[in-house]
Design brief:
Bound molecules: protoporphyrin IX containing FE
Number of helices: 21
Number of domains: 2
Helix content: 40-55%
Strand order of the largest sheet: 1-2-8-5-3
Number of strands: 15
CATH architecture of the largest domain: Orthogonal Bundle
Oligomer: single chain
Shape: globular
Distance between the termini: 104 Å
Low-confidence stretches: 291-299, 453-483
Strand content: 5-15%
Length: about 575
Amino acid sequence: MRKKPEGLLSRVLPSTITTWGVLQLCLLVVALLLLLRVSQLLVKYSSNICRLQCFAQPPKRNWLLGHLGLMRNTEEGLQSVDELVKMYKHSCAWFLGPFYTLIRLFHPDYIKPILLAPASNTYKDELFYGFLRPWLGQGLLLSNGEHWSRHRRLLTPAFHFDILKIYVAIFNKSTNIMHEKWRRLVAEGHSCLDMFEQISLMTLDSLLKCTFSYDSNCQERPSEYIAAIYELSTLVVQREHRMLYHWDWLYWRTDEGRRFKRACAVVHQFTASVVQKRRATLHQQGQSDQQPREGETRGKKVTDFIDVLLLSRDEDGKGLTDEEIKAEADTFMFEGHDTTASGISWVLYNLAIHPEYQDRCRAEVDALLQDHDSEEITWDNLSNLPFTTMCIKESLRLHPPVTAVTRRFGQDMTVPGTRVIPKGNICLVSIYGTHHNPDIWPNPEVCVVLPSLAVETYSMSSLQLADRCRRPHHNGPNVPADTHLCLSAKVYDPTRFDPENSEGRSSYAFIPFSAGPRNCIGQNFAMAEMKVVVALTLRRFHLVPRDSEVRRLPELILRAEGGLWLHLEPRGTPQD
Ligand code: HEM
């Protein structure tokens, strides 16, 4: 027998309706609401797809997965970007399953409106940046809106030229320590070293000194803090690659998630303790209440970023809290070390495989230092290394440390050709794609044709080609297809950055540090460090490539699979 509804229900519903009937009614309402929501989403989804018809859509895997998994973080993945750029010229739509749509942009005219959009309307999306949040919190890289713009204003003085000048001495010292180590290793018979490993320790050493005035001696002995930073970078990349780990609830229960938490705790504790100690010292010195003028640092000789952050005040005289300073310091440590290490490693590699440019840079450095009492590169010297600077820029073009940045917008965005990117879609600004766009950069590749047998026997270093990619050569009708191979090599040509050759080129064609309001706040710091390290390295060593293929590895930054190994030959005297 069916039960009748009881209590309040029995008073409002006719007596013929049973509890089961009420339940069924509720289920029906829930199902209808769900259906409504799903149809709303479907309508929104199909209207979005419709509006995206103005963008080219490369062939998908299938209707459900779209392009998911087609672009890998490997050498082949970068070659696929090259193909996309050649084929679609400026942009294309990319579907990551049914839920995410990316608009890939790789032409200066298309990325310009995206990068120049007001920061108040621009958001860093969680899909690409979210995994960094537990580590970097609301630091400059990840924050949005008013929080970001206040912090950007407060932090800009930390990168004022007067402050960067002080850091150049630190760059020299850290480089000297690295070179001492290299000389020792070469003397012990280890003349072939992984540049990434060596240089990232050195950039961390510099950054610890510039940020915290902390002499970790990390280039010589292991440090818990450094190990934690490495662990975090590796774990973020691992997490990106495993779809299941994208789910927070699961990730924090895995071994990797627990390791991430532990490493975060080490990094956060270190930063917190420096900030607290420094705050206490400033209080003792009675400096916390003085108001500085803009760009000034209260008459105190500034020694590191932490001091600048502790002393900075906004228009209302309000400073940053300890929590905010910690997030910014952690962000500098993350953004500043691996990127610069990648930049320097690739320049040294490009110079190693182009000895003619290496010699020309070395001659420039030798000429600069010839009447100096010391081997130190000063701030003023940095503007007197024009060819070396061109080589660094060409390397940042060919091997940009950050290969792409992404943005979401609170409103529709218009790009040339009256194409509209509907609000909510993710815009992926491909720095790598723009830097490799043949419409912008003439002479992007050479094709070296070799008999296929010769490819196996040819010494790789004597080929001296960057980013080799073996492709079947279109030999034409009279040449048997299997007798030749085309080695397509990217052209490393520093003279692209000769002021004469740069005329008429869009300023959005070369964007290793991004551009617009959310560009890299540390770009002058990074360029100064790169110049010091490259100049001193060429002054003291000859660089020779290893006889093996280099495969690029685009992770959080652009690396090389298995490291980037170079032979080092110490110079006896600078005249060598
Ligand atoms: C060769 C070295 C470097 C490269 C190629 C580089 C590249 C970039 C790029 C492309 C962005 C934009 C990121 C985005 O929009 O998601 C960025 C942002 C940033 N970079 Fe760098 N960077 C370098 C060195 C540094 C250094 C040395 C520091 C600090 C000491 C630094 C601090 C930052 C910060 C804080 C941001 C966020 C800025 C904001 O959103 O307002 N970077 N960097």
